[in-house]
Design a protein that fits this description.
The chain is an all-alpha fold. The protein is 80% helix and 0% strand. α1 runs antiparallel to α3. The structure holds fe (ii) ion (2 copies).
Length: 166
């Protein structure tokens, strides 16, 4: 049986992952409107990955004999002032998510919940990857600035990565 504190934190994390998925889905729509179709494809893939993260937590709750509860999601941000603004928000969101996963792990340690600690190992390493690409994207937009040609070249490269991931 999951302790109520751990159960509540896992339910909140399902909501966080679904919210991330929604945010990236909206980002992809905005990117398509900017004709940045490569980045849009990347963000659609991230949206699918975030929904997978939610499903991993849902499956784990089921395995522990608890029913996952799908909660209300706030409307995502649907437009951005610039590509840099979107990438900064993305970087911030991934860092925020890492902090939430780490806090969840600390709670599982405090509650002596070994299976939850084990399940979180995958998420801890996944967040290393998530922070890696979002940090790289941040460095890239800083380098490129408003240079339209460079933005479209980068967009093309990211689009290729989205269809044939590393
Ligand atoms: Fe995630
Ligand atoms: Fe993520």
């Amino acid at each position: 049986m999951l302790k109520p504190t751990v159960l509540e934190a896992l339910q909140t994390q399902v909501q966080q992952e679904m919210s991330n998925s929604y945010t990236y889905r909206a980002a992809a729509l905005w990117l398509d409107q900017q004709m940045l179709h490569g980045l849009a494809a990347w963000f659609r893939k991230q949206s699918a990955d975030e929904a997978d993260h939610a499903q991993r937590f849902i499956d784990y709750l089921t395995d522990r004999g608890a029913a996952a509860e799908l909660r209300a999601l706030a409307a995502p941000k649907n437009s951005y002032g610039s590509l840099a603004e979107l990438i900064q928000a993305t970087h911030g969101l991934e860092r925020h998510t890492s902090a939430a996963i780490h806090a969840l792990h600390a709670l599982a340690v405090k509650e002596g919940d070994l299976p939850t600690q084990q399940v979180l190992q995958w998420f801890i390493m996944e967040q290393v990857e998530e922070e890696k690409w979002s940090e790289e994207f941040l460095q890239m937009v800083k380098k490129i600035g408003d240079h339209v040609g460079s933005v479209f070249m980068w967009d093309h490269r990211v689009g290729k990565l989205a269809v044939a991931p590393e």
